[in-house]
Amino acid sequence: MDTSLSLARGTAAPVPATPVAGAGVVRIADDKAMLRAAADLTRDLVKPRPSVYWGDLIASVALGYGALVVAATSGSTAVVVVAAIVSVLGLYRGLSFIHEVSHMKHASVPNFRLGWNILVGVPMMTPSFMYEGVHNLHHAKTRYGTVEDPEYLPLALMKPWTLPLFIVVSALAPIALLIRFSILSPLSLLSPKLRTMVVERYSALAINPQFRRRAPEGEAKAYWNRLEVAASLWAITLIGITVAGVLPLRAFLTILGVASAFAVLNQVRTLVAHLWENDGEPMTVTAQYLDTVNVPPPALLPALWAPVGLRYHALHHLLPGLPYHALGEAHRRISAELDAMSPYHKASYPGLPGLVSKIARSTMVRR
C-alpha cells in the first residue's frame, strides 16, 4: 500500500520522505530539530496551575448553567437566543476539560477529576471514563491514524457526503446518552451479553466505528462503576421529573437543544482538528503533527470553538503532557526559535472556513 501526505500548505519547505524498507510505503521522516526544540523550550511549562484549572472550570459552568436557566425561563425571544448561545459556549468550554482530565496526573491538580465529574461529567452524561483510557490510544505512536485509533477516520479520503453526515449525526448525541444511561445501563446489569456490548461499543467518545473498548479492571473499574451509577440515576431522574411535570417540558427541550448545539460545535471542531489524510499506515511523530492542526492568534474565534487549548491541537500532539494554559506560550517560544523552513510552521492555519473547505475539497478530488 502506498501512503502519501500532502504538504502543499504554508511556506516552509517539504519535509523529506523516507522509504520504508520492504513495505513500498513512503513516510515522512521525523524532524529531530523540531522535536528537540519542542521538548527543550518547554521544560519549565509542564506543571499545571490548579488555580487556573479550577477558576476556569467554575467560571465556565457558572456562566453556562446560569445562561441555561435564563434560556429556559425567559419570555423574550431575543433574550432566549442570546442566553442559549452563551450557555452553549460556557458548557462547551466546561465539557472540554474532559480532555485535560484524560491527560493530567490527578495528584497535580487534587480532586479536579472528581469536581469536573460532579459539575459537568455526570450532569451532561459524559463522565470521565468515556474518555479516560480511550484518548490515550489516539496518542500512541503506533496507533495514530490506524484502524486501532478510536479518534481517527480518513475523512479526507472518503465520500463527500460523509462530511455533512459526520456533523449532523452529532446532534443526536444527547438523546443517545440519555438512552445509554437511563435504559442500557440498568438493563445491562441483567444481561452479561448486553453489558459487554455497552462497555465495548457505547462507553467511549470515539468516532471510529470499528473501535471496541476493553473492559476496565481494578480501581479503574470501581471508579467507572461509581460514575456510571451516578450518571444513570441522573438520567432516570431527569426523564422522571419531566414526565411528572416537575421540570417543564420547555426546560427539558432547552437542555436538549443546548446540549445538541455544543455537540455539533464540538463535532465541527473535531472535523478540523486533523487533515484526516492517513490511509491506515503507522506514521512518524512529524507526520502525525502535519496531519494535525493549530489555529493560533491573531485569530480570535478559535478561542470559542476550540477552547481549553484545543486551538493548539498539533502542538498538543508534540507535547501531550503540557497543560492547556501553557500551550500559547509554548507555541510562541517554538515559533520564534525555529526558522521558516521548519515543518513546525506548516501545521498552523488561519481559521475554520479554510480548514472545512480544504477537507471538503479533498473528498472531491479523490473521487
TrEMBL record:
GO molecular function, one term: oxidoreductase activity, acting on paired donors, with oxidation of a pair of donors resulting in the reduction of molecular oxygen to two molecules of water
Gene Ontology terms: biological process: lipid biosynthetic process
Keywords, alphabetical: Membrane, Transmembrane, Transmembrane helix
InterPro entries, alphabetized: FA_desaturase_dom, Fatty_acid_desaturase
Highest rank taxon of the organism: Bacteria
Entry GO CC: membrane
Organism: Sphingomonas aurantiaca
Residues that span the membrane, as ranges: 52-72, 78-95, 163-183, 233-265
Name the UniProt record assigns to this protein: Fatty acid desaturase
Fatty acid desaturase domain mapped to chain residues: 79-342
Signal sequence coordinates: none
Entry annotated with the keyword Methyltransferase: no
UniProt-listed Pfam families: FA_desaturase (PF00487)
Record keyword Cell inner membrane present: no
